[in-house]
Protein: Precorrin-2/cobalt-factor-2 C20-methyltransferase
Amino acid sequence: MAGTFYGIGVGPGDPELLTMKAVNTIRKVDVLIAPKTEKKDGSVAYNIAKPYLRDDVEIVYQVFPMVKHFEESTEAWEANMKEILGFLEAGKNVGFLTLGDAMFFSTYIYVFRLLEKKGVNIETIPGIPAFIAIGSHLGWPIVEGNDVLSIIPATADKETIEKVMSVSDNVVLMKVYKNFPEIADLLVENKMIDNAVMVSRVGMPDEERIDDILARKDQPVNYLSTVLARRTPEK
Structure:
């Protein structure tokens, strides 16, 4: 009998933020896939899940290239899928660890789509996204009343970001590491800079909170950084 493939959201960084279902799933799988990029050693998701691993679980690191258009660079993804299929066909249950939530800006989504086409039995375990953890951690209401909240990937083109910010009361800006100076300027233009905060690596030992975003405008930003901002009310 073929095994089951589990996508497991491990949350933003604090191992205590995993759901009970995520922990129970991690403890019952035979193989755990720990995704990583070509540029980094180890896996952040693996480190978060590490306290809950069985001694006999098999850890498999898979490299997933960071590409803008997934469909244009599928060779590595296909190879990883075949490796996963091999485990499943051998009757092993396989877990795939992913930061935050499995269906929210995650590498898992692409793997899910590939395996779904193969008729694999799949179960996805939700996790806490970074911006939700940041809001609770800082006592920062993310959205309330009739406010309009927009979640914006900062990797989108500038025109799209400008349009969305212009009609939003509150914004969550993800992936700000690539064009942080431009994002800082847009927060100023949209009267959000006075009510903005950026947190890097939330829930991890080296977590950092940045309240004066303009002062950090020209400095490098960690990959795992998220900005929460709200529009300053008109006087």
